[in-house]
Amino acid sequence: DGGITQSPKYLFRKEGQNVTLSCEQNLNHDAMYWYRQDPGQGLRLIYYSQIVNDFQKGDIAEGYSVSREKKESFPLTVTSAQKNPTAFYLCASSPLGQGILSGNTIYFGEGSWLTVV
Amino acid sequence: GENVEQHPSTLSVQEGDSAVIKCTYSDSASNYFPWYKQELGKGPQLIIDIRSNVGEKKDQRIAVTLNKTAKHFSLHITETQPEDSAVYFCAAITYSGAGSYQLTFGKGTKLSVIP
User: Does the structure show a pLDDT above 90 at A83?
Assistant: First the structure.
C-alpha cells in the first residue's frame, strides 16, 4: 500500500539529548513536511522540502534540523536546543504542481509522540 | 501571506443533529480548500475538498460550501454519529502556477457527538 510511515510511534528523550524521527513515503511525492502539534492546538510547520538536498524553514524551525538525501525520506532531528520538545509530530507529503488541486493532496503519517523525561 | 480562521474551536452536538464548521481566508488567490479529520493519536486524513470554481460539493453525509466573494467555506455534517467525533481542520491552498503553492491550515475544531 502507498503511504507515509513514521517511526517510532512513541519516543522518550532525556534532557540534553538529540533524537531523530523517521519519515518515509512511497507515494513518489516531491514535497515533504514536518508539523508539530501540541495538545488541543493546530498544526505548526517546522520544515519543508520540495526537492532532494533542499529544504526550507517553516514557522518554528529553531531547535530542529532535517535532511533530504532521498526523495522518499525526510528525517527530523529534535536537538537539545529545542527547549520544549514534548509534542505530537506529523510528517506529510504532497505532489508539486497542479496535482495539489485535485484529491491527490497532502497526505499525513500517523504521527510520533515525543516526551521529554 | 494567507491567514485561515476556523470557528468554533469546540463543538458539541447530539447524535443525529447537524454540525457546521466555518473557515474564512484572507488571500483571494487561494483556489483549493481541503478538509481533514484527525482522530485521537492519528494523523489527519482528507475527507472532502473543493476547488474555487465550485460552490458546493457533497459526499454522503458530508458537504462543503464555498463563498468566494465573502472568502469563507464551511463543512456540514448531517445525521452525526459518535464516530464523527474528532478534530477537523480546514486548509487553503494558493497555487501560484509556477509549480509551487502555499498551504495554510486553520487551528482545528474539536467535534464531540453525544450519544
Answer: no
